[in-house]
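Whether sequence alone determines local backbone shape is best considered at the level of individual chains. When preparing material for the folding task, we compiled for one chain both its residues and its backbone structure tokens. No coordinates are needed to read the tokens, only the vocabulary itself. For completeness, the protein is quoted in full, as a sequence line and a line of structure tokens:
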Amino acid sequence: MEIELSSLYGLGLYTDRGIYVGKIEDVSVDVKEKRISGLAVKDVNPNAFNVGKKKGVILPYRWVTAIGDIVLIKHVRRRALEREAEEEEEGEKGRK
């Protein structure tokens, strides 16, 4: 299936559980491999991802499950929270 990269700009990004993530602002392309490597998302829903004070996030394209009027990704809330908890634990260890 071929798509134009420009057709992804501005599309809403949702998890496969129907949670709004944000809007696609840009597409990261691996030129050597000739494939999309990630999606830059702006206006990220804090209930979907905890991005802190960042204005956006780049999500791996391998998480994409469907593209149409919207883009669907695998639900990753739990993984994101686990990663955040691990980073906090590492930060606390570094302060001691």
The longest strand covers residues 20-30. The beta strands are 12-15, 20-30, 35-42, 56-60, 64-67, 71-73. The CA atoms of residues 49 and 80 lie 7 Å apart. The radius of gyration is 15 Å.
